[in-house]
Amino acid sequence: MADTVKLVWDDKTYELPVIVGSEGEKAIDISRLRQDTGFITMDPGFANTGSCKSAITFMDGEKGILRYRGYPIEQLAEHSSFREVAYLLINGELPTRKQITRFSVLLNDHSLIHEDMRHFFGNFPRQSHPMGILSSMVNALKSFYPYLADTEEEIDIIVTRLISKVRTLAAMSYKISRGHTVIYPRPDLSYCENFLNMMFDSPVRPYEIDPDVVHALSVFLILHGDHEQNCSTSAVRLVGSGRVNLYAAISAGIAALWGPLHGGANQAVIEMLGRIDRKEMTINEAVERAKDKNDPFRLMGFGHRVYKTYDPRTKIIKQVCDRLLTKLNINDSLLDIAQTLEDIAVNDEYFISHNLYPNIDFYSGIVLRAIGIPTSMFTVMFAIGRLPGWIAQWKESMEDPEWKLNRPRQIFTGPQIRDYVPIEKRTVKV
């Protein structure tokens, strides 16, 4: 196989190196293209642009493959805990018993937040979205923990501090928004158990921890752990390329995740199903509107930017969803609507030809709803799950000797040079 490709322009031939990944992916190295030819490439949305080399996550959208550090997502969801997967993503290998014990101890040791941070919550407007609050609070962590060192042990503490405190911040924001007593983390509980207890325990009604609910939450977080160079991960790398602190980079990732086309999609699914449940439109009307290219309506939870077949995470989260609803004896009309929509989509020629298969957002919202997570917190849950992936990507970029400040180019389409016009001589152009 040739290790270069040729670009011919104006009777000149330029040879561009070919890079091949460990799974056979091929890329044309254009890093010297402008310097050698005067050209840049144009790729709106960066759908065909590789921004980095990474050893963290492998995806194959055509075959429906997702692996963390080489491990299939199916195996990790079945056999691992979220703590173990977080360690894998950040450190590159599954932990030994000694390593996971130390990691768990660090998570518990750093789970409390500075008491002064509680005052911040009271100063946000009552209707503030939890994602906006979380992004601000994570950024504020730098003020309370300003010392960021370079040794491996100190970086471990910074990383576990962030993973642990984000969970505490999320639960605390929920409690304060309800006017309820804040519940502090307990050292005897696991990561997911602690989060559920901080969310739902109260002095009046103690929360009973259900192993099946804990498992469902753990799988949800595992499935969201990392997903290659998506919008929020790219934001973390982009902002991090300026060598900002970890908290600022993660805050940027949270802000990027907020949108309905990315992390907010699971919330949008529930809202869409709710509209159908309230008879604002029928299932058939929703399907037909989704097919109409002139209608701005979108069938949320279907299709994916990368996957051109079934999202491998969907099968896993659907099984978790079915098992959880059966265990909790929940009859949810939204689930019935979701199942009907899925049956239509997987058999409809339009959806098949356009690769509009159900994705993870389609069922993850139902799982969170069954657990008792309010809809406004859905994207926050996504952020908690994605946090280890963001940290792994930030850490990898910081350690990359070839990494540079991200600075995309553009093609300018504005006016050419023109002379300044005094204000009294300016006219309005129609």
UniProtKB/TrEMBL annotation:
In the UniProt record, does the keyword Acyltransferase occur?
A: no
What Gene3D superfamilies does the database record attribute to this sequence? 2.20.28.60, Citrate Synthase, domain 1, Cytochrome P450-Terp, domain 2
GO CC terms in record: cytoplasm
Catalytic residues, per the record, are: 304, 361
What protein does this entry describe? Answer: Citrate synthase
Which SUPFAM superfamilies has this protein been placed in?
Citrate synthase
Q: Name one GO molecular function term.
A: citrate synthase activity
Q: Does the keyword Heme apply?
A: no
**Gene Ontology annotations of biological process type:** tricarboxylic acid cycle
**A Pfam family:** Citrate_synt
Family matches, as NCBIfam families: cit_synth_I, PRK05614.1
Highest rank taxon of the organism: Bacteria
InterPro entries with a match to the protein in the record: Citrate_synth-like_lrg_a-sub (IPR016142), Citrate_synth-like_sm_a-sub (IPR016143), Citrate_synthase (IPR002020), Citrate_synthase_AS (IPR019810), Citrate_synthase_bac-typ (IPR024176), Citrate_synthase_sf (IPR036969), Citrate_synthase_typ-I (IPR010953)
Its family remark reads: Belongs to the citrate synthase family.
Keyword line: Transferase, Tricarboxylic acid cycle
Q: State which pathway it belongs to.
A: Carbohydrate metabolism; tricarboxylic acid cycle; isocitrate from oxaloacetate: step 1/2
